[in-house]
């Protein structure tokens, strides 16, 4: 893991959180609690340009460096749980990953319908992170039959929520957005909901893992029915 620091190696926090990257060319940056981070022994201080531009881009402390660090195990980081929608709601957690932006991209979906849980890990080839996030939502909806059942789709992409249900005007990905919107109309009780990434919510973390797995392996793993631990049934 890479974390924002100054030239002396001191982690730089804003509001108690530090900008971190899981991979230098990931295309995503995150905000981790300072209390959950500690520099690794012998960690190397690297220049800013070691990392590709990310969403959101790090603009504060432009002259500081990044240092390799490790996350401390903390009960606070895994104490979160998913909202209780009841047993009648179909729930999907979706995520996209991109090594560079654009770059090799993948998506992950965790879909639960009652006691049945299915997972998808799909490699998309060269694409942007926004394409991966949108396609993950589309794949979740494509896996469901049109119905009047309650459906909750979670994403950590504010962009996806904006262009799909807040009326944001998009200059790119218009065909993909239109296709996804059309699919959304098949569900009269669909909710597209924002979930904070890397906040310890198990199914969201799993969707992220599936997306990154698709990128690292450059491979597709079709829909699989799994148990609560993510192992194939």
Keywords:
233 residues, alpha+beta, seven-stranded antiparallel sheet, 4 helices, 13 strands, 21% helix
Question: What would you say about this model in short?
Answer:
With 233 residues, this protein is α+β, with helices and mostly antiparallel strands. The chain is built from 4 helices and 13 strands. It is globular, with a radius of gyration of 18 Å.
Task: Write up this protein.
This protein has helices at 129-142, 158-165, 174-184, 202-217, and strands spanning 2-5, 13-14, 17-21, 30-33, 37-39, 45-46, 65-71, 90-98, 103-113, 116-127, 147-155, 187-194, 221-226. It is α+β, with helices and mostly antiparallel strands. The strands form 2 sheets. Strands 1, 2, 3, 4, 5, 6 and 7 form a 7-stranded antiparallel sheet that branches. Strand 2 (13-14) and strand 3 (17-21) form a beta hairpin. It is globular. It starts with a strand and ends in a 7-residue tail after the last strand. The model is unreliable at 56-81 (pLDDT under 50).
Largest sheet: 7 strands, antiparallel
**Radius of gyration, rounded?**
18 Å
**What portion of residues is helical?**
10-25%
Give, in order, the helices and strands.
EEEEEEEEEEHEHHEHE
Question: What class would the helix/strand composition place it in?
Answer: alpha+beta
The coarse silhouette is globular
Tally of individual helices: 4
Q: How many β strands by DSSP?
A: 13
Distance between the first and last residues' Cα: 32 Å
Mean pLDDT: 81
The proportion of residues in beta strands is: 35-45%
Poorly predicted runs are 56-81
């Amino acid at each position: 893991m890479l974390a924002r620091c100054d030239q002396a190696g001191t982690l730089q926090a804003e509001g108690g959180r530090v900008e971190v990257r899981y991979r230098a060319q990931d295309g995503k940056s995150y905000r981790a609690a300072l209390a959950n981070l500690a520099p690794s022994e012998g960690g190397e201080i690297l220049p800013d340009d070691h990392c590709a531009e990310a969403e959101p881009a790090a603009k504060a402390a432009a002259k500081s460096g990044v240092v390799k660090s490790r996350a401390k195990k903390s009960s606070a980081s895994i104490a979160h749980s998913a909202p209780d929608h009841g047993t009648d709601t179909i729930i999907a957690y979706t995520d996209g990953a991109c090594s560079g932006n654009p770059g090799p991209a993948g998506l992950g979906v965790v879909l639960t319908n009652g006691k049945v849980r299915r997972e998808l890990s799909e490699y998309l080839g060269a694409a942007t992170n926004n394409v991966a996030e949108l396609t993950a939502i589309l794949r979740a909806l494509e896996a469901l039959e049109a119905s009047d059942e309650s459906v909750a789709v979670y994403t950590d992409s504010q962009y996806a929520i904006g262009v799909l249900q807040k009326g944001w005007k998009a200059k790119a990905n218009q065909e993909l957005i239109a296709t996804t919107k059309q699919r959304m109309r098949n569900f009269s009780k669909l909710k597209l909901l924002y979930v904070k990434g890397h906040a310890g919510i198990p199914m969201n973390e799993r969707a992220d893992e599936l997306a990154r797995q698709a990128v690292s392996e450059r491979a597709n793993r079709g829909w699989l029915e799994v148990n609560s631990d993510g192992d194939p049934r």
